[in-house]
């Protein structure tokens, strides 16, 4: 998969906002990896801010919706992983500033 395709995928995923924090999930550091199979399956490996995150299913649905906008994507598979656990260190500088995290 090309870096351009990876960038396109991350770009559309940036439209997905964590409803609790009001910041997109890319800047929050929730996306661990994106891949696109030769058959056109987008595979997103991500985590959530907490295991009990009630917005998990909504976030996954939003990721699927955004990625399906890309012509190369025929199907979306989202894998949620808990290791390593999410922490504020994964957040971008932008997200830290927006949330007032030091």
UniProtKB/TrEMBL annotation:
Domain MIP18 family-like stretches: 10-78
Stored SUPFAM superfamilies: Fe-S cluster assembly (FSCA) domain-like (SSF117916)
InterPro entries noted in UniProt: Fe-S_Maturation_MIP18, FSCA_dom_sf, MIP18-like
Pfam families on file: FeS_assembly_P (PF01883)
Signal sequence residues: none
Domain of life: Bacteria
Gene3D superfamilies: Fe-S cluster assembly (FSCA)
Name by which UniProt lists this protein: Metal-sulfur cluster assembly factor
Organism of origin: Sporosarcina siberiensis
């Amino acid at each position: 998969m090309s870096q351009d395709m990876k960038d396109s995928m991350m770009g559309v995923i940036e439209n997905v906002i964590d409803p609790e924090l009001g910041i997109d999930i890319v800047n929050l550091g929730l996306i661990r990896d994106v891949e696109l199979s030769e058959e056109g399956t987008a595979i997103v490996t991500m985590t959530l801010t907490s295991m009990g995150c009630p917005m998990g299913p909504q976030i996954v649905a939003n990721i699927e919706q955004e990625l399906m906008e890309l012509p190369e994507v025929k199907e979306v598979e989202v894998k949620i992983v808990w290791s390593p656990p999410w922490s504020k260190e994964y957040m971008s500088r932008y997200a830290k500033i927006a949330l007032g995290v030091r």
